[in-house]
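Entry 14. Ran structure prediction on the chain below.
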Amino acid sequence: MDTGIKVGDCMKTTLITIDESASIFDTAKKMSDAKVGSLLVEKNGKITGIITDSDLVRKCLAKKNTHCTVGEVATHPLVTIGPEMDLSEAARLMGTKKLRRLVVMQGNHTVGIISSTDITKISPSLYDLIAQKQVLERAARN
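Output, structure tokens:
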């Protein structure tokens, strides 16, 4: 069920990055200052991963490991989508991969980021595609 709305039409194009050697404290401060829930991770000037507020909590703070670096806890490799793809495809990919954000790539260039929140604000009916896989897995566990 295509929406006719392309990822490129609603992605965020302001990309905030952090070096993989940064501490989790620097990462949290940068996220807080920028009012974002994720940063793109750079290594030698190339985007190699993404770190989210959830990564900081689950992989460092909950384990009382405050000496983590970004590179140790960031998600690698990136799950990406093209700007020409339909929003429904982005929602389906998020649901399948259990992700809340996708990095948007055009060729070898990072051009944006799209979140599940961005998608559901534009097309609330796509929420089911994003949540479907997660709900089924939770039900299977119980």
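DSSP finds seven helices and six strands in the chain. Will compare against last week's run tomorrow.
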